[in-house]
Amino acid sequence: MILTRLALALLCVQLAACAVQTKPSTSRLPAVPTPADARAVSPAFANSTASLLIDEVWKRPGLSPRDRSLVTVAVLIARGQTVEMDYHFDLVLKNGVKPVELSEAINHLAFYTGWGNATATVLIAQEVFARHHISADQLAPVSPVLLQIDKAVEADRVVKVDEAVGTTSPGLVHYTTVALFNDLWLRPGLAPRDRSLITVSALVANGQVGQVGFHLNRAMDNGLTQPQASEMLTQLAFYAGWPNVFSAVPVFKSVFASRAG
Amino acid sequence: MILTRLALALLCVQLAACAVQTKPSTSRLPAVPTPADARAVSPAFANSTASLLIDEVWKRPGLSPRDRSLVTVAVLIARGQTVEMDYHFDLVLKNGVKPVELSEAINHLAFYTGWGNATATVLIAQEVFARHHISADQLAPVSPVLLQIDKAVEADRVVKVDEAVGTTSPGLVHYTTVALFNDLWLRPGLAPRDRSLITVSALVANGQVGQVGFHLNRAMDNGLTQPQASEMLTQLAFYAGWPNVFSAVPVFKSVFASRAG
Amino acid sequence: MILTRLALALLCVQLAACAVQTKPSTSRLPAVPTPADARAVSPAFANSTASLLIDEVWKRPGLSPRDRSLVTVAVLIARGQTVEMDYHFDLVLKNGVKPVELSEAINHLAFYTGWGNATATVLIAQEVFARHHISADQLAPVSPVLLQIDKAVEADRVVKVDEAVGTTSPGLVHYTTVALFNDLWLRPGLAPRDRSLITVSALVANGQVGQVGFHLNRAMDNGLTQPQASEMLTQLAFYAGWPNVFSAVPVFKSVFASRAG
User: Fold this and answer.
1) To 5 degrees, how large is the angle CA C13–CA C14–CA C15?
2) How confident is the prediction for chain A on average, in pLDDT?
């Protein structure tokens, strides 16, 4: 009898352990397909992923793997594509993006893609951060010392937003200044050039062509080169789909032309 | 032996209970991140959510919490943002939206955002409704007595849709009349002004600028005031992202101007 | 004691079996709501789904159930609507789409809607394929013998893409030729007409109006009739939402007019 009780106790312990293993706190996160899963659905797609995309496009010289990862992560967040996030949050860190930069990118894209888009990253990013043993002091802080604002550029922006929005939505004018241009863009954890990179990527990913001109110009003012912007479109074609990129091309073309003139 | 059998039987009962607890019928719904989860990914984002968004923007006087909740829920449904739905379906009810109104809103947005968008709300709304002890007679009924149609407005709409669509898609013309304007919009469970509020929100949330003019005019005909429409843009900036709102501003501006003239 | 051990062993077996049943490898896929679930949230929506959509729209004569299913599946993939995928991947096969065609459609839409959109289908399609006992030789192969290219059409396309894109993004020009028009569109597993059908559907579903003209013309060159294209808009109204269809109507109208002239 004693032995039986012991066996039962052991079984209970095993069951508890088992429960922990098979139902981790993350079990409700989207399941991540493996290459074998992709092959079981479309060998053609699995093959393109491996040989065309990973082995070729990601290795093209025009844009660094770090930039490609930032572009890709921005697309996924902009479109709420949670299934791919675990893989690409991991890859963006491996490609040299610092934890604080990814943490800032998520905060940045809350404003540029919608609050729910940032919220949808939280549990997945949390798991990836845990796997990388990232500590709290490596994350986007609440109140960092801000970068210096360029007063001339900002004065010009204020005039233009007042003209474009003004009394149509005073609240929008207010938060565009206090939350975005006098705060978000000045946070030092992610360089302005990288903020521009993910902003433009998010715009293209959601077909928001009308806002690309302002932000591509700003990106290039912030240091994005024309060859890099040009190669962004190649990366975006695969992750945001061809049509979104073809719709953005005329704006890229015209920004390139206006800056060359 | 008898005692052992008893122990085994007890264990079985415990296991069954355990299974019920750890694998509820809802365990496959998207996991909902807590503020602590958000802090573990981006303290900056968690702080903006709490102090900028919840404590400030939601309390601005220009738009009631009830309207802000309707706007927000419309954004989430329009974009299929399931992670945020549990929180905001709960909040919309707490902010005074009646169960029948939320139930009608889901049905309304099936037509205005796509069938799959409504389907994606079902299991989450079901769980929220259960928590609020909402009964079947509080939901959008199959065949209510419809509101009276405004015959002059409807005659005008029919002419315009015939001109715009006509033979390009007779099926579209047909269902626009019988399913939308002679039925959906006349269902009494959600006021026309609120149907317009969520329709315009959904359009802005998905960048469907071309359809905003008609529906914003209709919203204002249905009782949405200009200050409310203006403040909608502030709420939408946070939930649909700045770029979508900046793209919609010119249409809001021109509708405001045309109605002021 | 021996009996007790046997009982324990049996219990272990049962537990293992139970684990397999209650936590299958697919338990992290999105839960699929039943009609009863929909009724518990909105009887109006559940009723429209059953009597208006399934019993009426799907049975309209202008477009076959097979085509309606392809249109619908394209919408779901284009928008990442995973909740509806299990139902419609199953239905598309029942409506006569061959496994290789669905497998090709997923690969095709990776390019036309974004890589992550195809990835998001993988685990769900895998489960549906398993239920239908579909074997590896029924899937989109890596390197099939390609269809013959129409050299005149292709030469014209190359000129136009060079004019439109050219130096703005040489990478985009390159992959548009080698990955899309000299490969993807020539894969025999899905007819060019059906590739066009899902491409146009995906464009309308995501509001990518600017690209509809080229692809609708191509669809009609590939054999899509005007009545079919017209009725596509009816199907799309329900699955992509009314606003996306109203935005696409002027392009359809103008393509129909230009081909009638």
Assistant:
1) 90
2) 92
pLDDT of residue C28: 75
A10 or C126: which carries more pLDDT confidence?
A: C126
Compare CB distances from B42 to A19, A106, A164 and report the shortest one's residue: A106
Low-confidence stretches of chain B (pLDDT < 50) are 1, 3, 6, 8-26
In this prediction, residue C15 carries a pLDDT of: 39
How many whole angstroms separate alpha carbon C248 and alpha carbon A88? Answer: 34
Closest by CA position to C206, among listed C67, C75, C73, C110: C75
In chain B, what residues touch A104 (CB-CB under 8 Å)?
42, 44
Q: Is the pLDDT of residue C73 over 50?
A: yes
User: How far is residue A120's CA from residue B79's CA, in Å, rounded to a whole number?
Assistant: 12
The tokens of B167 are what?
A: 């033979």
Q: From the CA of A133, how many Å to the nearest CA of chain B?
A: 12
Interface A-B: count of C-beta contacts within 8 A: 180
Between CA C90 and CA C95 the distance in angstroms is: 9
Residue C231: which of C65, C72, C63 has the closest Cα?
A: C63
Residue A134, pLDDT above cutoff 80: yes
The Cα A154–Cα A147 span in angstroms is: 13
Report the C-alpha gap between C94 and C100 in whole angstroms: 14
What's the ipTM? 0.90
Indicate yes or no: CB of C106 within 8 angstroms of CB of A45.
yes
> What is the C-alpha separation between B54 and B35, in angstroms, rounded?
12
User: What sign results for the dihedral spanned by CA atoms C87, C88, C94, C100?
Assistant: negative
Residues of chain C with pLDDT > 90: what percent? 88
Q: State the smallest CA–CA distance between residue A5 and chain C in angstroms.
A: 10
Hey, what are B6's tokens?
């008893």
- Domain borders along chain B are 148-185
- Three-state secondary structure of B112-145: HHCHHHHHCCHHHHHHHHHHCCCCHHHCCCCCCC
Distance from C-alpha of C173 to C-alpha of B248, rounded to nearest angstrom: 32
Chain C residues touching residue B183 (CB < 8 angstroms) = none
Helical spans, DSSP H, in A84-150: 85-94, 99-113, 115-119, 122-131
Calculate mean pLDDT across residues A65-94.
Answer: 98
**Residue C4, pLDDT score:** 54
pLDDT of C19 higher than 60: no
Q: What number of residues does chain A have?
A: 261
Residue pair C180/A242 in contact (Cβ under 8 Å)? The answer is: yes
- Sign of the C-alpha dihedral computed for residues C186, C189, C192 and C194 taken in this order: negative
CA–CA gap between residue C193 and residue B128 (Å, rounded): 44
The per-residue pLDDT for A160 is 96
Tokens of A132: 């990388």
Nearest Cα residue to A35 out of A19, A51, A11: A51
The token pair that represents A104 in the structure block: 């800032």
| Tokens 């006349």, located at residue | B186
Is C173 in contact with C162 (CB distance < 8 Å)?
Answer: yes
B46/A142 Cα distance (integer angstroms): 8
Instruction: Please give the pLDDT value at position A19.
Output: 32
Sort out which chain C residues have CB atoms less than 8 A from B202's CB and list them: 243
Binned at pLDDT 50, 70 and 90, residue A2 comes out as low
Contact predicate A33/C122, CB 8 Å: yes
The nearest alpha carbon in chain B to A111 belongs to B241
Interchain pair A207, C208: CB under 8 A: yes
Contact call for residues A147 and A188 (beta carbons, < 8 A): yes
Q: How far apart are CA C58 and CA C141, in angstroms?
A: 31
Taking the alpha carbons at both ends of chain B, their separation in whole angstroms is 92
pLDDT greater than 80 at residue C20: no
| Residue A114: strand, helix, or coil | coil
- Phi, psi (deg, nearest 5) at residue A223: 115, -5
